[in-house]
Amino acid sequence: MPVALALLSAVFVVGFEQLVQVKYGATGFVGLLLLTIGIKAKSPAVSSAGAVVLAMLVAGPAL
After folding, report:
1. Can you give the pLDDT at residue 63?
2. DSSP per residue over 1-63, as a string?
3. What are the pLDDT digits (tens) for 1-56?
4. Rounded Cα distance, 11 and 39, in Å
5. From 48's CA, which of 1, 14, 58, 59 has a CA 20 to 30 Å away?
6. How far apart are CA 22 and CA 49, in angstroms?
7. Angle of helix 44-59 relative to helix 2-41, nearest 10 degrees?
8. Contact of 54 with 31, CB cutoff 8 Å
9. How many angstroms separate the Cα of 24 from the Cα of each of 3, 8, 38?
């Protein structure tokens, strides 16, 4: 069962990354990548930079 859960999780992550890249382009992918790397490395600076990039992409039309 853990193998099926790991496979399902990997498929979800890859699908979510593709969705972000299609909707927000390469900048969205870089923001998501920075956020993911920052969380895994436990680096608040890197994860904050990724969160700011994603927030600016989402809030861009409203500004």
Report:
1. 64
2. -HHHHHHHHHHHHHHHHHHHHHHHHHHHHHHHHHHHHHHHHT-HHHHHHHHHHHHHHHHGGG-
3. 677 788 888 888 888 878 877 877 888 888 888 988 998 999 999 999 999 998 99
4. 19
5. 14
6. 21
7. 100
8. yes
9. 31, 24, 20
> Which tokens belong to 20?
């972000």
Task: Return all residues near 8 (Cβ < 8 A) that are at least 6 apart.
Answer: none
- Give residues with Cβ within 8 angstroms of 54, minimum separation 6: 24, 28, 31, 32, 35
Handedness of CA 25, 27, 32, 37 (dihedral sign): positive
Distance of CA 9 to the CA centre of its chain: 14
